[in-house]
Design a protein that fits this description.
The protein is built from 19 helices and six strands. The chain is mostly helical. It folds into three domains: about 160 residues, no CATH class; about 80 residues, no CATH class; about 240 residues, no CATH class. The strands form two sheets. The protein has a three-stranded antiparallel β-sheet. A hairpin with a 4-residue loop joins β5 and β6. α17 packs across α18.
Length: about 525
Amino acid sequence: MDSNSLPLSNLSPAQRKAFNGHLNDMWDDYQDELADLIIEAKTMVPNSLYFGDDPTTEARRQLEDYARKANLIAQDYYRNVRAAWAEAAGISMPDYKEAQVSSDRAFWQIVGGYNNTMHVGAKFTDVINGRSKAGLTMDHLWAINTRGYTEDDWARLAKDVINETARLTGRFTAQNDPTRPKYARVPQGKTCAFCAMLASRGFVYASEDTAGKWHRYHHGCDCKIVPSWGETEIDGYDPDKLKAIYQQAKNAAKAAGDGSDPNTVLSWMRSESPDMFTDGSEFAPDLRIPRGSRLEQQLGEAYTRRVNRLLNKTEHKDAARLWAKYAAQYDIKETRLPKGAYFSPSDGGIHLNLDTVMAGDNAHRPVQNLFHESGHMLDWLLDKNSFSWAPHNGKLFNDVLKRDAQRIFDTTQATLMAEDKPAGRQSVMKAIAREIATNSAKTDRNVEDMLQAALGDDYHGSVGHPKGYFRQSGQLQSTEAFAEMLDAQMANPEAWRLIANYFPESAKMFNTMIQEALS
C-alpha cells in the first residue's frame, strides 16, 4: 500500500481541515506526554544515585523504566495516528509490529556505540546478544561513557534516553510497517541549524535512508518522528521554508568559493539566518562583514570576528549598518604599510599596516584606524565627490563644524576673561587643549583633529594632522570629521563622548547624514 495514495476524496474541505487539526492535537499531546516524562526522569534518575550499593546500576534501572514508558508513549502515538488515517480514508490497514526499544538501544544510539573506540563498526545486536568476538558488553559501554558523571550529566542523559527511545520507536515501527508510511523529523520550536537541515527533507519513505545518515541526533535534541500516510501539515513545521534557507546558504557558500559540504553549508545557515536557529551566529547579517567578501578574506577569520563584535556591540547601530552595507566594497590594497594609514581615491583602496591597526597605538584604540580609513572610503563610495562635503537638508557639514568650534572658542575665551586670565587667541587655544588633555586619554582625542581643522594650525593639540594639511582643500574638514566620527562610534565610545560634547550640532548632523545614507 502506498502511503501517498490513501483516498481522502470522501472528506469535504471542512472535514479535511478538521482531520488535520486532529493530527495536530495528537502531535501536541504526544509532545506533552514526553515532556512530562522528561521532567520526572530528570529528577528521579539523579536521585537514584543515592540508593543501593552501585549508583550506576540503580541509575540504569531507572533509565530502563523511563525508556519503557517512552516506548509505550511513542507506540500509542503511532497507533493513534495510523488509526486516524485509516478511519479518514475509510479503509482497513493490515496488522503491523510495534517496535520495542530498550534504554540500552537508545544509549547505543546516543553515544554512537563503540565507534569512539578501537572497535569501530561493532553492532548492537552482536553486543547485546553476547556475540561480540572482542567480548564487548553493554555494561562496559555504559561504564566508559558515564564515568565521572555528575547529577546534571545523568539528568541530561535521562532526557536524551527518553527522546531517543521515542524516535527509534517511531522510526523502527514505520520501517517495518507493511503500509509503508512516510515519516518526518520534526523539531520542537526553534532548533539548531543541523536539525533544521535534516528536517528540511519533509516526509520521506524509510527506504530512502538505508544508510542512516539522516538519523543523526545531538545531545539535548528535541526532534521527534512524525509518521504520515498522506498529506500532513504539522503546526510550526515548514519543511519548504527550511529547505529554502538551506539552499540559499548552499548557493551563497558556493558563490563565495567555500564549497558545499554539509558543515560549510551549516556554517552559512547560522551566519545568514542567525535568528532562525538556536545556534545562529552571534552577529546579525546586517551587522557583520559579508561572508565570502574580499574584506573578510583580507582581514582573516580572527580580525573579521573582532570587527563584527564591534559592529554588534556599538550603540550606534545606524552607523554600523551603513558601514556593513558597503563592507563588501572596501578594499585593502596594502596591509604592511611601514608607517601611517590612508585611503586613496586614485586607486580606490585602503593602505595601512593591518596588525598595527588592529592592535592600536598611542593615538588610536584597537581597530579604530580601520574604521577611520574605511570611513573615508565609505564617504567616497556614497558620493565620489565626497558625501560629507555635499549639502544635507540645506546645510553644509563644514559650516556646522565651524560654528561648533567657534562656540568652543568663544565660551573658553569668556571663561578666561571672567577669571581675569590672559584671553588672547593663543591663550584660548592652549586652554581648550589643556581641558581636553586633562579629561581624556590620548587615544580618545579625535576631537582635536576636528578642532585643528576648524580653528587652524595654531591649535595646540596632542593629536592631529601635519600643519598645512587642512589648507590643501576645503573638503578635508568635512571628510576628516566624517571619518573621525565614524571610527569613534564604531570603536571608541569615549572619543564619541568628547565629540558630542564639543561638537554637539555637528554630531547631530552626522547622525542625520548616516540615516540619510542608510535609507
